[in-house]
Amino acid sequence: MTQQSDSAILQQYKTLEARFDRAAQMYDATYGPPQPTGQGSPLLGWLRERHLAVLRDLFPAGAALLDIGSGTGEEALALAGEGYSVLGIDISPAMVRQAQTKAAVYGMQRRVSFRALPAGRLALLDERGPFGGAYASQGTLNTEPDLPRFAEGLHNLLVNGAPFVAMVMSRHCAFEILRNLRRRKPDETLKRSDDWQETWAGSGGVTAPVRFYTPRTFAQPFKPYFKVESVRAFPLWLPPVYLHDLYRQDAARFQRWEAWDRRMCGWPGFRAWGDHFLMVLRHTGQPESQTAEAQPGDVVPTAEKVENH
Ligand SMILES: C[S@@+](CC[C@H](N)C(=O)[O-])C[C@H]1O[C@@H](n2cnc3c(N)ncnc32)[C@H](O)[C@@H]1O
To answer: What is the CATH number of domain 6-283?
Structure first.
């Protein structure tokens, strides 16, 4: 898989911005925390709770954090409420406006703020940190066309040794394959290609150009800057996010499966087989080599080039 040209990357940013902008208004009603009215998603609620527990364990109390693909701000606001200070970035200005409105309603603007920016353009961020940790949840980085530049930009913003937690949509999902074999409908299995294709782009119900990763292919662009610390399936034995209504319909059954999920998610033969994998990477101080630096002839991004971003 070769790196895309600069103009293809800009085009992809425009597509992502437009598609996620359109989804922003209804995002919380469908994928937000479950409400007594039936709105929101119990599966997403469960995933966020488990993800937040991992983040709390890793990040020092009160640290400054970066939320990459912050959406409507659910996780950033939860962490801000626990004493962290959080900067969320998101490619969609409409998502950013939703998150800012929620921060204002909860009176949290001093602890949390949001900016419209693609993940691959962190070098353009005014706030230079340094940050004590970062995370990107729900497959945000599966749509980022410039992972090498993202890895370099993130490295420049984090303190030495800081953790970065990435929740990435996997190339293979055991739940999905077994379910469709059992139903004798293998054709309904989501095509999880390792090359760019238009498909389901994570919660939000958005179709966009997406790449799926194995832990090994995802870790590659991070190699000069981060060390992989752990990988687990996330989730393993619960439905993939695009089948979240299945979880709603049979929550009691899936709650029983959660114990198996927790037990098996880190097993070597299984950790690459969830809907997502959760990878913890550790900032390594100086970059291993300077290969990710601009070479003669490279097009270096500038504020003008990325226009609104
Ligand atoms: C699936 S949503 C997850 C939102 C949030 N983290 C949550 O847990 O609800 C993905 C978010 O990432 C944003 N996004 C997608 N690709 C991005 C990129 N390349 N750079 C920055 N944000 C991106 C989308 O606009 C969307 O708000």
So the answer is: 3.40.50.150
